[in-house]
Amino acid sequence: MDISEFNTLIRNRRSIFPNMYTGERVDEQVVEQMLENARWAPTHKHTNPWRFCVFTKDGLKKLADFQSKLYKSISSQAGNFLESKFEMLKTKPLQASHIISIGMRRDPAERLPEIEEIEAVACAVQNMYLTASAYGVGCYWGSGGITYVESAKDFFGLEAKDKLLGFLYIGVPKKIPAGRRESMDDKVKWIR
Ligand SMILES: Cc1cc2nc3c(=O)[nH]c(=O)nc-3n(C[C@H](O)[C@H](O)[C@H](O)COP(=O)(O)O)c2cc1C
After folding, report:
1. Domains along the sequence of the chain with CATH
2. Considering only CA atoms, which residue is closest to atom 27 of ligand 1?
3. Of 10, 48, 68, 80, which is most buried, counting CB atoms within 10 Å of its CB?
């Protein structure tokens, strides 16, 4: 393995938002490699807590319809419905080639703290992000919309103790934007 290519891959990975996709379909084999690499994320007690649904083609419309209708019913009851948000939820998924819902399955025996299962899923998502980057494919982890709505979980095959953690949007990028990060100087302490 070329370590400098590896470093470049990590540092050049960017979140590529749906409005930055060309509209072309990403090769299914790339999505399969992303899922395969997700499988190799670290997992305490081997609970393998990741649960994904892959939406593509008509599935994107099903997701868009589901989340916009759910938003409408919840926000209408709460009296804070916004037409613009409804439209966004109904149309944004259609800009993607694939969308993977990111779910966490809670260990039934609760042998480890919940946060460790969330952490394992986040590692799996990073594996997918990096795999996509390596293939020149764009993706973006979005946690808006219906992500934290309890009643949404069933649609994604999740149970009461599980968690929906958001959506990985996937598409062919028009271009890769520059990234920015803060210095590590005030975030790392070396004790020697
Ligand atoms: C758990 C998680 C949830 C995120 N949710 C959103 C989101 O809802 N909306 C958004 O614009 N970006 C979201 N992001 C992406 C960040 O905006 C993005 O990582 C950040 O801007 C840095 O850009 P980069 O990933 O290209 O380096 C999320 C990232 C993570 C890790």
Report:
1. 26-170 (3.40.109.10)
2. 14
3. 68
Q: What is the percent of the chain with per-residue pLDDT over 70, rounded to a whole number?
A: 100
Tell me, using a 6 A CB cutoff, whether residue 15 lines ligand 1: yes
Mean pLDDT of all residues in 65-83:
98
* Band of residue 42 on the pLDDT scale cut at 50, 70, 90: very high
Instruction: State the average pLDDT over residues 101-115.
Output: 98
pLDDT of residue 98: 99
**Beta carbon of 141 within 6 Å of any ligand 1 atom:** yes
Helices (H) and strands (E) in the chain — how many of each?
A: 5, 4
For ligand 1, is residue 143 a contact (CB within 6 Å)? Answer: yes
DSSP string, 77-144: HHT---HHHHHHHHHGGGG-SEEEEEEEPPPTT--S-HHHHHHHHHHHHHHHHHHHHHTT-EEEEE--
- 88 Cβ below 6 A of ligand 1: no
